[in-house]
Amino acid sequence: MKIIFAGTPEFAAVALTALHDAGFEIPQVLTQPDRPAGRGMQLHASAVKQFAIAHRTPVAQPVSLRLDGKYPDVAKEVHELLHATPHDVMVVAAYGLILPQSILSIPKHGCINIHASLLPRWRGAAPIHRAVEAGDAETGVTIMLMEEGLDTGPMLLMERLSIAAEDTTGSLHDKLAHLGGAMIVDVLRKLALGAMPAAPQPQTGITYAAKITKEEAALDFTQSADCLARKIRAFNPFPCAFARFNEVPIKIWRAEVAPPSPVAIPGQVLAADEQAGVLVVCGTGVLRLLELQKPGGKRLPASEFLKGFPMESGRFE
Questions:
Q1: Paired residues of 218 in beta bridges
Q2: Are residues 236 and 301 in the same domain?
Q3: How many helices (H) and strands (E) does the chain have?
Q4: Cα gap 267→283, rounded to integer Å
Q5: Residues β-bridged to residue 91
Q6: Of 166, 154, 161, 149, the residue nearest 116 (C-alpha)
Q7: How many Cβ atoms are within 10 Å of 71's Cβ, its own excluded?
Q8: CATH at residue 170
Q9: pTM for the complete prediction?
């Protein structure tokens, strides 16, 4: 079975690696254009492009796939490329571009998406972040046939995964990426033997995982300690939760809920030492900050952070 693969970040690269290692032929890869990143804002290739180059697989990086969009000539070239490239199915994972019907209808077996949630919960751009932020007990991966709606297609396979109390978006991402890679290999092997039944998504339980913005990472200590602890895990590693302490923005990488206190001034630091860590009053409860980072500094455990940034007086805002 010949596969055209469309994806961009590490989540997609894990699936691409699994398909390659399983022996599937991949004559063409689509990925997003190179983006500026890092302090120097130099152009960086996506994880999928890096894999494709390393394995001498042709790569296309269109800015759009829509024939009626802003870049019709670019989209036309991609359509012609896909029609000219023999393939049976397109596998899509965190690609980042909308596939119009004119693309979806090209592969003989359609386009199959690897989505990191238990659909129809958390359709959309940031399902892993939102599951952690919401405090979900479990998540998983859904392999579905794509249609024009946002993650609305019929489901071919679903696997569940418990969310551990210490899971961050980063750790959960890695678990789901490897699960998705194994699942897509399983689905395509079965598809090669004949048609696979697809089940429509339930019409109840639909939620949407909106794209994460950097503004969301600012912590509001009038919220509960439980809520803030989930946000910190959800925004690790990106965009990383932060709060201002005496006007200095401090990134907060890890935290846990601590025993409550009678003090009721949200943002006030109750204690800041090697034994207690950094205890901060919340709207409800207390949050213990475990790993912090000041501007220009490194991520440090609270005990090390406090040696260079005392917090005996002041408050978070």
A1: 242
A2: yes
A3: 8, 17
A4: 9
A5: 5, 112
A6: 161
A7: 15
A8: 3.40.50.170
A9: 0.94
Question: Which runs of consecutive H residues, i.e. helices, occur in the chain?
Answer: 10-21, 47-54, 72-84, 101-104, 127-134, 169-193, 225-234, 302-308
**8 Å CB contact between 158 and 183:** no
Domain count, the chain: 2
Domain residues for the domain of 46 are 2-209
Residue type, 98: I
Backbone torsions φ then ψ of 294, nearest 5 degrees: -90, 165
**Among 209, 229, 255, where does a domain finish?**
209
Query: Domain ends where: 161, 188, 209?
Result: 209
The span from the CA of 30 to the CA of 48, in Å, is 8
| The token pair that represents 57 in the structure block | 């697989």
pLDDT, tens digit, for every residue of 275-317? Answer: 888 999 999 999 999 999 999 999 999 999 999 999 977 889 8
Residue 44 in tokens: 């960086």
67 alpha carbon, distance to own chain's centre: 28
Same domain, yes or no, for 201 and 262?
A: no
Query: Token match 């205890």: residue?
Result: 279
Hey, what's the torsion of the CAs at 215, 221, 222, 227, to 10 degrees?
80
Judgement on whether residues 86 and 190 belong to the same structural domain of the protein: yes
**3-state DSSP assignment of residue 36:** strand
Same domain, 138 and 243: no
pLDDT given at position 248: 95
Q: Which two three-digit tokens encode residue 143?
A: 């392999």
Inform me whether the pLDDT recorded for 265 exceeds 80: yes
Q: What percentage of the chain has pLDDT greater than the value 90? A: 91
Return phi, psi of residue 232, to 5°: -60, -40
Q: pLDDT tens digits for 61-96?
A: 999 999 998 999 999 999 999 999 999 999 999 999
